[in-house]
Request: fold
Amino acid sequence: MRAIDALPCRVHVFVCANTRPPGGLPSCDQGGQGLFDALKLWALHNRHARTVWVTQTRCLGYCHAAGATLAFYYPGSSRKPVFLQAVTQSDLPEVVQRYIVAALAPPVA
Ligand code: FES
Reply:
């Protein structure tokens, strides 16, 4: 085993696309897969495939009946991780600006 140094990742987004059978706990199958696909495309189209990693996950522990749960981690940064619940496609422009683009901007001197 060996650790991997110098990862190019600056923002790692985890998108819950968990599904559950009807009648039990809610899950992120209300859009999680679509959010994952959209964020992955955003990273590719904006030439951030190396610096913005988008990973589809199972339950992140913040299940909700509407939308999906997203988690943002910022490797190599002092930024704290952010979890968002009940995210929908209409939230995506704001989510991208606040939690991805802002983290990629150079720090203000
Ligand atoms: S099913 Fe998505 S956070 Fe639990």
Q: What stands out?
A: The mean pLDDT is 93.
